[in-house]
Amino acid sequence: MSILKTDYFNKKTYFGRLSAHLRARQDIRLARQVEDKIYNYEIFLTVNYFSDFISDKVYCSKAVIKGGKLYVDANSTASTIWLDKELTGNFRIEYDAHIESSNNNSNNLNCFFLYADTTGTPLRETRALRKSGNYKLYHGYNGYIFTYVPNPKEPSGGRFRLRDCPGFHLIQENNTFESKIGKTYRITIEKLNDRILIYVDGNLMLDKHDDEQNSIHERGLFGFRTWNTELWWDNLRITQL
Predict the structure, then answer these.
(1) Structure pTM?
(2) Percentage of residues in the chain with pLDDT exceeding 70?
(3) Contact 64, 55 (CB under 8 A)
(4) For the residues of 211-237, what is the DSSP string, one character each?
(5) How many CB atoms are closer than 10 A to CB 180?
(6) What mean pLDDT, rounded, does the chain reach?
(7) Is the pLDDT of residue 106 over 60?
(8) Which pLDDT tens digit goes with each residue over 18-44?
């Protein structure tokens, strides 16, 4: 299974196919040179290409490739895994998320996007500052946090929140749908200028124009985040719009 797929279109078709061909030949160095020419690129989820992801290495909750999926057991701690490729402009992020088990029904399916250090320092260079995994350590960076957890008033239901950092400002919330262990959810995040739309299994959960707190975030990393949850992610696709 591939964790990051390319949408080939228009002038990007040639570079996309060339990149896929080079990766099939295990020529990673040349493939990455080609991928610098396009926004969308393809990574097959194998140990060879796992270097495109970086972890904050929280305790023992290390990300591994398991059954062709990005797997993390953070049932007693937390984990943050970044895709070390800067996103800019308008885009769509899509991925599958599946909870295997979760302490206290935490069912924590969170993520960061357009995340960046306020000083401009690459996040890969500041991982040691976040090694404790404390959630508050992430609240001082630039970017958005999407959280998908159970509704505390109705545990079988879902609670969706969008936050704007720095400041951990709650800019939209929706209590609806569901949150279940053992079910695979397809999550989609779209950024269209100042508008952010988030879907789960095709259902629109959040739709917000970011005009309340910080300036609109225009560039940064995407990162998976979880806590008290054993889960896997798969079929991550990022498309420039």
Answers:
(1) 0.81
(2) 76
(3) no
(4) -SSSPPP-EEEEEEEEEEEEEEEEEEE
(5) 13
(6) 82
(7) yes
(8) 556 556 666 666 655 545 544 443 333
CA dihedral 93, 196, 171, 125 (to 10 degrees): 40
Q: Give the start-end residues of each E strand in 126-183.
A: 142-151, 154-165, 169-176
Question: What pLDDT does residue 114 have?
Answer: 97
Q: Which strand (E) or helix (H) includes residue 16?
A: helix 12-24
Which structural domains are found in the chain, ordered by start?
1-44 (no CATH), 54-240 (2.60.120.560)
Beta bridge partners of 226: 79
Distance CA 20, CA 230 (A): 31
Q: Choose between 97 and 41: higher pLDDT.
A: 97
Q: Exposed (0-12), middle (13-18) or buried (19+): which is 183, by Cβ within 10 Å?
A: exposed
Quote helix, strand, coil % in the chain, to nearest 5.
Answer: 15, 50, 30
pLDDT in tens, 162-171: 999 999 999 9
Structure tokens that stand for 180 in this block: 């279940």
Is 60:77 a contact under the CB 8 Å cutoff? yes
The candidate with the shortest Cα–Cα distance to 49, out of 34, 73, 65, is 65
